[in-house]
Amino acid sequence: MSTQPQRLLDAHAQQILQEYLDNLPEFRKQAMQIYVAIKETLEKVGLIVASIEYRVKSEDSLAGKLELKGAKYKSLADITDIIGLRVITYYSEDVDKVASAVDRLFEIDWDNSVDKRKLLEIDSFGYLSLHYICSKEGFPYRFEVQMRTILQHAWANMNHDTGYKSGVEIPIYYRRSLSRMAGLLELVDEEFSRIRVELADYRRRVQNLVASGNLDDAPLDTETYRSYLNINPFGRLIRSIASINQAEIQEVTLLPYLEVFQWLGFRTLGDLERLIKEHSDAAFQLASFQLSLTDLDIISSSVAPQNLCIVYILKTGGGTVGLTKMFNLLNGESESNEMMAEYLLEQAKDLPFMNVKK
Fold first, then answer.
1. Where are the alpha helices (DSSP H) in the chain?
2. Does a structural domain hold residue 5?
3. Residue 134, number of CB atoms within 10 A of its CB
4. Residues 60-87: pLDDT tens digits?
5. Shared-domain flag, residues 178 and 233
6. 215 assigned to some structural domain
7. 213: which DSSP letter?
8. Closest by Cα among 306, 221, 236, 237 to 271
9. Residue 160 domain-assigned?
10. Residues 163 and 25 both lie in one domain
11. For residue range 35-63, what is the model confidence (pLDDT) as tens digits?
12. 38 and 160 co-located in one domain
């Protein structure tokens, strides 16, 4: 037995509903094709979004719409949201990028499209979507594409649940509270975008500093260190070490050494550059002693920064304590780290760099 409510539809509305039912398989097919077209286009331009959703209006939803205002529609083609898609972005500025992609894919009905972001009401945050009414070549029915941020989407869903589903008018106190929350979320949306833009600008400045060689002006942090690694600063040393045994170099991430460098007191990329320049010979001496009696034919690229740190710690009097701290930072705290530190100190004590008079 059907649980759908009985609808009072006149003959005209019944005709529109029947046209919908006759074309329902095609609507479902087209909805999927439109979804795929948008998804592939965004992937091609490298635009990452939170989600892309699509749906075909249900029979009951359409019947309810026709029951309320069926007279305003001459035919099914006048109803623009039989197929609906929603693209949820992470950042507000990406809404316009999605819109540009949709504009390239489909014909936009500008007279019926709405940019609700231009609304100024204080409680309108969750409804600041950009709504495009679109047409696709070879398909006679229009469809709707909504674009909004993930915070706008979350707010719209939450506000709908709290404000409308109960069927009870919300007291002004709660509506004011919801409006304040909307303002906060809008501020968060704007701050995310601002921080994103500033970080992108910072990355460009860091890359320019690295490219220009002004390394003393680049503070040592995650972004600068990543850019620095792109110029392969440890490459010459690791190639020299690998040549001891004619070994193959296994490339691994060197990001964990950032924490070690910072602990050692290096504050700029210029400090790292001087570490490499002043201590590479000693790091090579240590590697030669370690590898000369082995037949290792694969060497990790991490040997270069690790040996530089070992040499620096030993030459500055860090001893076993310093070496243990380094291994704790790299590998996590373990009793074996102290044993490894003591072994290294014993290995290195007679090497030339340990006996240079200051």
1. 11-44, 59-69, 92-105, 150-163, 172-212, 222-229, 235-243, 257-263, 269-291, 303-315, 319-331, 335-348
2. no
3. 22
4. 999 988 888 878 899 999 999 999 999 9
5. no
6. no
7. T
8. 221
9. yes
10. yes
11. 999 999 999 999 999 999 999 999 999 99
12. yes
Domain boundaries, position 322: 222-355
Are 251 and 296 in the same domain?
yes
pLDDT tens digits, 181-217:
777 777 888 888 888 887 777 777 777 777 777 888 8
Distance CA 74, CA 83 (A): 18
| Residue from 324, 322, 349 nearest 339 by CA | 324
Q: How many domains does the chain have?
A: 2
Q: Is residue 238 part of a domain?
A: yes
SS3 332: coil
Length of the chain: 358
Tokens representing 18 are 């029947």
Tell me how far apart the alpha carbons of residues 119 and 128 are, in angstroms, rounded to a whole number.
7
Answer yes or no: do 94 and 234 share one domain.
no
DSSP track, 188-218: HHHHHHHHHHHHHHHHHHHHHHHHHT-GGGS
